[in-house]
């Protein structure tokens, strides 16, 4: 591989303004522009399986502007049972 240090990721391709500027499109490319709904559906299904209360996720949390984060330990909450 020329022009890249070992272990580094390739530079993100540049897209025209036509494409949405989302991390999903930035990583997977413009062919996945409409996959955002698929990702949301998948995350909702995961939350139903791993969260006590999927409406108030503690393990698979949304990071605004970034995406999703998995917490191996649920966040502490004052609303615990």
Descriptive notes:
With 81 residues, this protein is α+β, with helices and mostly antiparallel strands. The chain has a domain at 23-70: Winged helix-like DNA-binding domain superfamily/Winged helix DNA-binding domain (Arc Repressor Mutant, subunit A), CATH 1.10.10. It has two helices and two strands. It has helices spanning 23-28, 36-50, and strands at residues 60-63, 67-70. It is elongated, with a radius of gyration of 17 Å. The model is unreliable at 15-20 (pLDDT under 50).
Describe, in short, the structure shown.
By secondary structure, the protein is α+β, with helices and mostly antiparallel strands. The chain has helices at residues 23-28, 36-50; strands spanning 60-63, 67-70. The protein has a domain at 23-70: Arc Repressor Mutant, subunit A, CATH 1.10.10.10.
């Amino acid at each position: 591989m020329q022009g890249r240090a070992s272990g580094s990721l390739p530079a993100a391709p540049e897209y025209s303004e036509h494409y949405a500027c989302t991390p999903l499109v930035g990583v997977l490319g413009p062919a996945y522009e409409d996959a955002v709904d698929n990702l949301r559906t998948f995350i909702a299904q995961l939350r139903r399986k791993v969260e006590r209360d999927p409406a108030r996720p503690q393990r698979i949390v949304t990071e605004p502007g970034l995406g999703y984060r998995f917490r191996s330990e649920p966040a502490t909450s004052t609303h615990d049972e």
